[in-house]
């Protein structure tokens, strides 16, 4: 999840700090010229019914990355481990990776739907849709989230959506982020740890996901586990960056033995399969119960296997399909080579009788000026009045580099990023000198009770708000 995590190591030599300092000079960006579109300058507003209305825009618009090339950085690092590379802040988006993980919760209504269904097949369909929706926010998001500092945390309580969420950066080498969320009605628990393995292929960067994701539906006494698909960003050397997800995702219901197998298809030579997801749900006897199809950037449908097979046969008999018009999802850059990027993105072909499981949320009209954030993502770094007094001192919202970037103060953000990384390096050296081990605060290493594999489990106690022994990381 989030292909860039792992950059900005505290082992880095700082060779690119000069590039960081030059960023602000090269950007034609006035932090005072913000694009606040709301009447309340993007600040939180209380509606008459008492429910908070979250901000709808960032304090400052994003800048153009057109003058910068990822390749100008990577070409100096051929042969180096990607986790040793420090990237200039211009390639970032103003969120920590911990906040990006929280975007799993954008489509929490699918968990609520799963909780409400009496039929285990319908529950699995809703969970499958939730697993796909979790990667949907990455569509067109080619900015790099900030790498969390060791001990960094993020909390989010959304009473309107019925959940609370806490995450912690539990390891820096390798970078591991652990998270835990629970329903405010005590109806579900959602937790996991994520540590992608990065590979640089010359023209693309690939993040192979590691770590188990677990969803427990408490009322039904059910637990589901899965791992995310591989994420790949193309054209890191030249052309327009574009992103795809591919690989097999297997969701297991450990109570019933049902499985959902989803194939996130690679785009192929002519882009015919780009963004496509196809799979099926089977029972413990491997009998196919339903077929799932769609796109992780658009929607997900399900139908019964017989209908699907009949449609496929008729589709083949129909000969060559008529060419579909290119959509705006994928745009060919003038600088791209012919095989750099698919030219055509078709829409999902609906099979009559199918049931809609999920559809992607519309993005705000000013999303392209806000790093292609969804409405949910726009609200994540919001620092409401009085919040500072109750947050853990390690919360992402208090990070000065992210806060300054969000406000358009790029030069300050760049210097703060470098200061925080240096502070982290110094703290690590101090611990090594005194032979002191780092202790995580809210999570501990253990075994996932359903898969038997190593996992990071929530220790509890965060929402008691005893933050006296939190580390000083900012």
Automatic annotation (TrEMBL):
Example of a GO biological process term: lipid transport
Alphabetic keyword roster: Coiled coil, Lipid transport, Lipid-binding, Transport
Recorded coiled-coil stretches: 403-437
Alphabetized Pfam families for the sequence: Oxysterol_BP
Membrane spanning stretches: none
UniProt key word Transport: yes
Gene3D superfamilies documented for this protein: 2.40.160.120, 3.30.70.3490
InterPro entries named among the record's database cross-references: OSBP_sf, Oxysterol-bd, Oxysterol-bd_CS
Keyword Repeat attributed: no
A GO cellular component entry from the record: cytosol
GO-annotated molecular function: cholesterol binding
Similarity comment: family membership: Belongs to the OSBP family.
PANTHER family in alphabetical order: OXYSTEROL-BINDING PROTEIN-RELATED, OXYSTEROL-BINDING PROTEIN-RELATED PROTEIN 2
The name this protein goes by in its record: Oxysterol-binding protein
Originating organism: Burhinus bistriatus
């Amino acid at each position: 999840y989030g292909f860039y995590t792992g950059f900005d190591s505290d082992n880095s030599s700082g060779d690119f700090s000069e590039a960081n300092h030059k960023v602000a000079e090269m950007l034609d960006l006035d932090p005072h010229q913000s694009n606040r579109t709301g009447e309340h300058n993007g600040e939180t507003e209380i509606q008459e019914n008492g429910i908070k209305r979250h901000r709808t825009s960032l304090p400052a618009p994003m800048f153009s990355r057109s003058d910068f090339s990822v390749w100008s950085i990577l070409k100096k690092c051929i042969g180096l481990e990607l986790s040793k590379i420090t990237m200039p802040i211009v390639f970032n988006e103003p969120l920590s990776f911990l906040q990006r993980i929280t975007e799993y919760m954008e489509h929490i209504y699918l968990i609520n739907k799963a909780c409400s269904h009496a039929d285990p097949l319908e529950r699995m369909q809703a969970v499958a849709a939730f697993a796909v929706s979790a990667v949907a926010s990455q569509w067109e998001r080619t900015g790099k989230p900030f790498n969390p500092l060791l001990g960094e945390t993020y909390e989010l309580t959304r009473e309107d959506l019925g959940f609370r969420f806490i995450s912690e950066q539990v390891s820096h080498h390798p970078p591991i982020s652990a998270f835990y969320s629970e329903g405010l009605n005590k109806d579900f628990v959602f937790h996991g740890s994520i540590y992608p393995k990065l590979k640089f292929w010359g023209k693309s960067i690939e993040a192979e996901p590691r770590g188990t994701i677990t969803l427990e539906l408490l009322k039904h006494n059910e637990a589901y586990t899965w791992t995310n698909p591989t994420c790949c960003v193309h054209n890191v050397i030249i052309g327009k960056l574009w992103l795809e997800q591919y690989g097999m995702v297997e969701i297991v219901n450990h109570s019933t033995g049902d499985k959902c197998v989803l194939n996130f298809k690679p785009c192929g030579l002519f882009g015919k399969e780009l963004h496509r997801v196809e799979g099926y749900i089977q029972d413990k006897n491997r009998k196919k119960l339903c077929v799932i199809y769609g796109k992780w950037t658009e929607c997900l449908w399900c139908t019964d296997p017989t209908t699907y097979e009949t449609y496929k046969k008729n589709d083949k008999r129909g000969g060559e399909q008529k060419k579909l018009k290119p959509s705006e999802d994928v745009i060919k850059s003038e600088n791209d080579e012919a095989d750099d990027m698919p030219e055509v993105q078709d829409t999902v072909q609906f099979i009559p009788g199918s049931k809609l499981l999920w559809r992607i949320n519309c993005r705000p009209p000013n999303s392209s000026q806000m790093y292609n954030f969804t409405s949910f993502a726009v609200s994540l770094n919001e620092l409401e009045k009085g919040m500072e007094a109750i947050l853990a001192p390690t919360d992402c919202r208090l990070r000065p580099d992210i806060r300054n970037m969000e406000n358009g103060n790029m030069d300050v953000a760049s210097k703060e990023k470098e200061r925080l990384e240096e502070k982290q390096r110094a703290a690590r050296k101090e611990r090594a000198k005194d032979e002191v081990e780092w202790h995580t605060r809210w999570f501990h290493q253990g075994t996932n009770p359903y898969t038997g594999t190593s996992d990071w489990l929530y220790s509890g106690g965060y929402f008691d708000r005893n933050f006296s022994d939190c580390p000083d990381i900012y």
